[in-house]
Amino acid sequence: DSGVTQTPKHLITATGQRVTLRCSPRSGDLSVYWYQQSLDQGLQFLIHYYNGEERAKGNILERFSAQQFPDLHSELNLSSLELGDSALYFCASSPATGTGYRRGYTFGSGTRLTVV
Amino acid sequence: AQTVTQSQPEMSVQEAETVTLSCTYDTSESDYYLFWYKQPPSRQMILVIRQEAYKQQNATENRFSVNFQKAAKSFSLKISDSQLGDAAMYFCAYRSAMKTSGSRLTFGEGTQLTVNP
Questions:
Q1: Burial class of residue B81 in the structure, from the number of CB atoms within 10 Å of its CB (0-12 exposed, 13-18 middle, 19+ buried)
Q2: How far apart are CA A89 and CA A46, in angstroms?
Q3: Phi and psi dihedrals of A5, rounded to 5?
Q4: Which of B36, B63, B34 is nearest to B48 (CA)?
Q5: pLDDT at residue B110 is higher than 80
Q6: Of A48, A102, A112, which is closest to B104 when you measure between CB atoms?
Q7: Cβ of A26 under 8 Å from any chain B Cβ?
Q8: Whole-angstrom Cα distance, residue B7 to residue B3?
Q9: Which partner from A14, B4, B8, B115 sits 20 to 30 angstroms from A77, CA to CA?
Q10: What would the pLDDT profile of B86-95 be if each residue is shown by its tens digit?
């Protein structure tokens, strides 16, 4: 157990639907990062939240949104789903500074989304 | 913006042999961190090794070591005595040290390593 919890692990849904992916960061980590990994592809950065505030956006579609709550858990909302949204969605957390920051991310195990 | 390039989409090695995976990056920053992550078929992301740019000494973790050439912006991973369990996708990643609220990891495209028995 890495300390970062992602739910659900697997999700199958139909085109046009909306889903919510959830991430609980490692205890004490204020930053949460979301990435998308399509089949046999690299990791595409979606969005970064720090202590409840959006800090950076990457290649995130307008149909996607995210937020980080006061208890620091984060949710990634994907709407009007298309077949091409099928991917593995990773959440990762990190301290913002100090020794933990230098260690990089702690990754969750990912949510595998299949759009049919 | 920083970029990370892995020019070898696929590599293979014989069990017990040594293999080197290449990574180059582009940045104008002087202080940063570099990482190698491993992604086995389970798709879990596993940190293999990390390097702090201000440290000249190359990092080593058991059978894994890096060759960090700051001036050349090169960060290669050497796997010695390769084992079947080393078979995975390997990602090189860059992280700035400059942001007060943290900054993201920028990943390369990955190198798929096959270990032949």
A1: exposed
A2: 10
A3: -110, 125
A4: B36
A5: yes
A6: A48
A7: no
A8: 13
A9: B4
A10: 999 999 999 9
